[in-house]
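Example 3.2
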Amino acid sequence: MNLANRITIARIFLVPVIMFFLLIQVKFPHIRIEQFSITYNQIIATLIFIIAASTDSLDGYLARKRKLVSKLGMLLDPLADKLLVTAVLVSLVEMDKLDAWIAIVIISREFAVTGLRQIALLEGQVIAASKLGKWKTASQITAIIALLLNNFPFTFINFRFDLLSSWIAAIITVYSGIDYFLKNKHVVNFSDKQ
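Structure, written as tokens:
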């Protein structure tokens, strides 16, 4: 197994660790500054999430740079991304920090596009990530971090950046999903003819 795939698998293994720190019933002490409060376990979960999210770019870069692109990597990389985002979004809903409908919209798009990519792979085609897809990922990560950090530092100026970034992530996610299907409708049409 090559280095890029090991990094991808490490990202998958970080998912339950993040969920443990987010959903643990025994809460660690709080950090309190004026009206802002956060638990140490939220900070730990956020740091692990940032590390896991950053490995997505790293494994792709290594795979291309060192010519380590493999079928296993093409299968595991999007799966690892979806597991990470899905697990954290579900945890945020459980923690009452995110509306369930936003999580459902984002998760539905993620799995729909993953399904489209899997159909393309079966047909011997690869659907590369688009710029819009990269913006989608960046907006989701930004929203998740803002939610995990209880809207820090925007809470001090009474600005709901966490809410705004969640809405932006949902809108970009839906728009990029529609864009993927419109640009790759030939994949679905081709598989219908088989």
